[in-house]
Amino acid sequence: MTHSLSRRQILAASVSSVLLPAALQGADSASDSPNQLTEPQRTIPVADTTDVLVCGGGPAGIATAISAARTGASVRILEAHGCLGGVWTSGMLSYVMDAEKPGLNAELPRRLEQMDAVRHSGPKNYIYDVESMKVLLEELCDENDIKVQYHTRIVAVEKDAANRVRGVITESKSGRQAWRANTVVDTTGDGDVGALAGCKWEFGREEDCPCQPMSLMGIITASPEALQQFDRLKGGQTKDEFRAFIQTAGIDPSYAKPTLWYMGGSVAAVMMNHEYGVRPFDAGAVTEATIRARRELYDICRGLKGLGGAWSDCRLVTTAEQIGVRDGRRIKGRYFVTVDDVREGARHEDAICRSEFSVDIHAATREENKKAAYSGQGVKAKPFDIPLRALIASDVDGLMMAGRCISGDFFAHASYRVTGNAVAMGEAAGVTSALAAKEGCLPQDVAWKPISKQLAELRKPVA
Question: Matching InterPro entries, A to Z (predicted)?
Fold first, then answer.
């Protein structure tokens, strides 16, 4: 489904006037109607100006920031939650997929090994300790002189008369602040910046939104004997057997392939729920989905505890700060990755990474879930290239994307959305943005050769 904001919405969300430091004002009590509030015009302080402004500190955002800094740019990350890592940490994903790639994808597990905080599952995937990942990502930002501000949400985009993104406006405990940069990178996952900038975007498969479900990750505790029985990293019993076991406790999980990753000791990460048909940009719907999902995880753990034996000490230790989103906005770029690219194994001169993951579409409804929890829906994937052009917004200048909000269709997105690919995309966005700042130009005007050369340098194997 393609969307575009109305002219009035674009004007409301975009700021083209000069922003000067001044005291913030309260909202006017006068309103156009009982259901509307008119906010008076106000000046907003510019908190910082930087070469590259990264909006979202998840896997793609971290990679963007580190690569830009290592290319010589000044960098700032704005993050809505209280840690870096996004779905890895505040989302407690605990499992990285399609990560057999050079550069930061190789550096992260190597450094996690030094922290005794990783378990490998073949060359492409690994499980990690969430708290160790938080510390590592903050260390990397400190090492590369990257500025970070947490608990900060983007609420508007500043554009000039030439339709170039110049910065963003945020809300936080510090009030409204403006942030400017040569290049802004949307790594919010849900394409929040691109939408606020007035870019066209797609979401879901069709206009009536069959979209992929959300899942709330959790950490549980039980005896090692119990957890190792269903550990997917060690070839434990199947997901179907785990589901059948949960059903003996009187609960049929909303996700037909509940998964457990044993993390050592008496701790495991679990993905056992689906929330269907939830739009990630509807805060009310996401709230309700989170509440339902948390209750389901709690009930499952209580049910397992009630089985006694090895599960007698089972309890839900914690749930993720944010529910895991598979399907968000896909911002229109200068190339649109399609299902044909996936089927044909497309190659591009400006390829910045290769997706080797299958087309992974989770059931859109609970009824479909009973038949097949996930499938490729008939699309057989060949490893395909993602071109740099898919990371550059087409409707505005000065904006790049990295992660699952890049330009592509529903089926291509179902492959490239995993976080190993998000990291590789972020590296390319970071290098391109840094070189654009150095040359004083737009991302699309940076020649491919220096981008390719710098990416190869950053991705050299470490002895």
Answer: FAD/NAD-bd_sf, HdrA-like
Bridge-based pairing of strands 175-186 and 46-55 is parallel
Q: State the Cα–Cα distance between residues 49 and 6, nearest whole angstrom.
A: 29
Residue 303 in tokens? 């049910």
Helix (H) or strand (E) holding 376: none
Cα 128 to its chain centre, rounded Å, is 17
What is the sign, positive or negative, of the torsion defined by CA atoms of 427, 433, 437, 439? Answer: positive
User: Average pLDDT of 34-52?
Assistant: 92
Beta bridge partners of 218: 270, 319
- The predicted model gives 104-111 an average pLDDT of 97
pLDDT given for residue 20 in this prediction: 40
How many other C-beta atoms are found inside a 10 Å radius of the C-beta of residue 385? Answer: 18
Q: Give backbone dihedrals phi and psi of 436, rounded to 5 degrees, phi first.
A: -65, -40
Count of other CB atoms within 10 angstroms of residue 8: 8
Indicate if the pLDDT at residue 173 is higher than 70: yes
* Per-residue pLDDT band at 366 (split at 50, 70, 90): very high
CA 298, CA 300: separation in Å to the nearest integer?
Answer: 6
Tell the burial category of 379 from Cβ atoms under 10 Å away from its Cβ (0-12, 13-18, 19+): middle
Number of residues that make up the chain: 463
CA distance 213 to 192: 19
Domain ranges of the chain: 2-21+47-203+382-458, 218-319
Across 149-163, b (16+ Cβ under 10 Å) vs e yields beebbbebbbbeeee
Supply the pLDDT for residue 13. Answer: 44
Assigned CATH class of 2-21+47-203+382-458: alpha beta
> Nearest Cα to 355, choosing from 380, 384, 375?
384
Strand order in the sheet with 95-96: 95-96, 125-128, 118-121
CA distance 211 to 283: 16
Token pair recorded at residue 56 = 């979202």
Instruction: Kindly provide the residue ranges of all beta strands, DSSP E only, lying in 87-145, ordered along the sequence.
Output: 95-96, 118-121, 125-128
CB atoms within 10 A of CB 365: 13
